[in-house]
Amino acid sequence: xxxxxxxxxxxxxxxxxxxxxxxxxxxxxxxxxxSGSSRHSPRNVAVAHQLNARSLATVLVDLLTPDEDxxxxxxxxxxxxxxxxxxxxxxxxxxxxxxxxxxxxxxxLFGASTGAAASLVAAASRxxxxxAVVSRxxxxxxxxxxxxxxxxxxxxxxxxxxxxxxxxxxxARAELGEVAELRxxxxxxxxxxxxxxxxxxxxxxxxxxxxxxxxxxxx
Length: 219
Fold this sequence. Notes:
Blueprint: E1 2-8, E2 15-21, E3 27-32, H1 42-52, E4 56-61, H2 82-98, E5 107-112, H3 114-125, E6 130-136, E7 154-159, H4 163-176, E8 180-185, H5 197-212
Parallel strand pairs: 3-4, 3-5, 5-6, 6-7, 7-8
Antiparallel strand pairs: 1-2, 2-4
Helix pairs in contact: 1-5, 2-3
């Protein structure tokens, strides 16, 4: 298992990211965290480790620079700027296509909360590169018109007690059409903090990515 910390040059100064590459990786999953979180999110890190165990490389990245991530009136709106976050994700996907270790691997996107919307917009803009998407407790509705342009198989995972978000995901699944599947994790709230619920997310996400990232993308 190779771990490296990199700066991805998609903005001035770069974006900090942790890349974990298991031997014999069959694909790579780029994580997009929700507002107020970071690449050190314990939930995303836990899911990433389980994906690594299934021969999936992972890229956990801070989508905001340190200056942008200071919560004040000037920067607060950046956390919810889906268009900007999606552009950065798409640029990171492009960077992954230039990285010698990651280039041969098919790409999946794992988005949480607002990161799920940004992931779907990015997937719509890179249909030939993004092969699968998983949303955890996401707000896919915030992807707007981009939903109808998503071609990647998309799994929407929502906690059974997260009633408002279930409704929003049902609406988004209808917009996504046949590429999407909505699954409810019983007994889970929005952050999947209940015992065993995050393990269910990791297991279902791992199976989804292992299935849809099976065919390597041309180098």
